[in-house]
TrEMBL record:
Belongs to the CinA family. SUPFAM superfamilies: CinA-like, Molybdenum cofactor biosynthesis proteins. This is CinA-like protein. Residues 7-174 form the MoaB/Mog domain. InterPro entries: CinA (IPR050101), CinA-like_C (IPR036653), CinA_C (IPR008136), CinA_KH (IPR041424), Competence-induced_CinA (IPR008135), MoaB/Mog-like_dom_sf (IPR036425), MoaB/Mog_dom (IPR001453). The lineage of its organism: Bacteria, Pseudomonadati, Bacteroidota, Cytophagia, Cytophagales. SMART domains: MoCF_biosynth. It comes from the Bacteria. It comes from Larkinella bovis. Coiled coil: none annotated.
């Protein structure tokens, strides 16, 4: 079956100026993948006529579907419709159905329809009008020379609803699409290159229609196995077979699959044991607690935390011994152990975790350079500490540390099951 290829183009100076973040292309790519339609390129252009024409001409050469978002407002700076008329060698005309829709839209809100707003109903003559139930800018569908062109508003809420309820059903009717299945294996604690070496033989023997991608981020590597075919059940069975074959090679590093995040996995383990967690954070400044509490229901397994940035708080609130700080300092195994034990006991939790280190960009010494970080996990039975040697960048160090301490917590919870 011939693959259906898509190019997604976002239009707007505000994207190029960095004034807004383009989330549309990511969302569209994910939704098209579910249909078996593969996105081969994403690009952004400003509100300039020639730039839009150039990218349309390029996309026509390689894509079966070209999706544009943005530039459909009623003001003079929104030029997408006029430029599409030039591209298709046609002209705007007021669409009666679109005019009726936008009129009702304003009447339902007790507002008068102005001529500027009425221009939302001016559409290229060769397009199929796509009603927008969530705003005034309509969607447009063009079919020229075996290529489908779709123009959508750039407002994410409007775009997503138009895609979900109008465009996707229309694409499914128009194209016979292959099946695409993704399976993600989530690992932590092993680098991308080491992981690749470990599974090299398995990867080399994958069937031609199954592809592997490595997606590293903050001490984690996601292995994405993608299969393309015509039979959904058969494809899923093949992928499951390959996952079963690779897991024994990497099991110590696997913490979840697909949408699992490390904090979600930890939350499930805590809930299964009916355990409460407490956190003591120095170098991470509360970031670990924020990761734990970003999901609803976290009060069922998280009792609270202490951001012990100063030594005074470490001593007075967590029970860290002053002589420990005096002899080995705040960034040490002894200190982080006492922090984890102290917060567990002080807050009445079943398990406590702690972080203490030099996040950077300054504060390091020859003995303890920037990126030197200790983490610990304490239960009634044991306290485990580990040394991390990270890099010079503060934000990355904080995020890496959070992943590592949550993974340490995961390992301890599994160990005590």
């Amino acid at each position: 079956m011939k693959p259906i290829l898509t190019e997604v183009i976002t239009i707007g100076d505000e994207i190029l100026f960095g004034q807004i973040t383009d989330t549309n292309t990511q969302w569209i790519g994910a939704e098209l993948t579910k249909l078996g339609i593969r996105t081969i390129r994403k690009s952004s252009v400003g509100d300039q006529r020639q730039s839009i024409l150039d990218v349309l001409n390029e996309a026509t050469q390689r894509a079966d579907v070209v999706i544009l978002t943005g530039g459909l407002g009623p003001t003079k700076d929104d030029i997408t419709k006029v430029t599409l008329c030039e591209f298709f060698n046609t002209q705007l005309e007021r669409n009666p159905e679109a005019l009726g829709f936008v009129t009702k839209f304003f009447e339902s809100r007790g507002r008068q329809l102005t001529e500027i707003n009425a221009r939302q109903a001016d559409l290229p003559q060769n397009c199929t009008y796509i009603p927008n139930d969530w705003g005034t800018a309509p969607g447009m569908w063009f079919h020229e020379n075996e290529t489908v062109y779709i123009s959508l508003p750039g407002v994410p809420f409007e775009m997503k609803n138009l895609m979900q309820y109008r465009i996707i059903p229309k694409l499914q009717q128009h194209f016979e699409t292959p099946v695409i299945v993704h399976k993600i294996i989530r690992t932590v604690g092993i680098g991308e290159s080491f992981l690749a070496e470990t599974i090299a033989n398995w990867e080399d023997n994958l069937p031609e229609h199954l592809k592997l991608a490595y997606l590293p981020q903050f001490s984690q590597v996601r292995l994405r196995l993608t299969g393309t075919g015509t039979d959904l059940l058969q494809l899923r069975a093949e992928i499951d077979e390959q996952v079963a074959a690779v897991l024994p090679l990497i099991q110590p590093y696997v913490y979840g699959f697909d949408e699992d995040e490390i904090e979600m996995v930890v939350a499930r383990l805590l809930s299964e044991k009916s355990w409460m967690l407490a956190t003591a954070e120095s170098c991470t400044g509360g970031f670990v607690a924020s990761q734990i509490t970003k999901y609803a229901g976290s009060s069922q397994y998280f009792v609270g935390g202490v951001v012990s940035y100063s030594n005074t708080v470490k001593v007075n609130q967590l029970g860290v011994k002053p002589e420990t700080l005096g002899q080995v300092g705040a960034v040490s195994e002894e200190t982080v152990r006492q922090m984890a034990e102290g917060v567990r006991l002080k807050l009445g939790a079943n398990v406590g975790i702690a972080t203490s280190g030099i996040a950077g960009p300054d504060g390091g010494t020859p003995e303890k350079p920037v990126g030197t970080i200790w983490i610990a996990c304490s239960t009634e039975k044991q306290t485990v500490a580990r040394l991390l040697k990270l890099g010079p960048y503060r934000e990355q160090n904080i995020q890496h540390t959070a992943v590592h301490v949550l993974n340490l917590l995961r390992q301890v919870l599994l160990d005590e099951q």
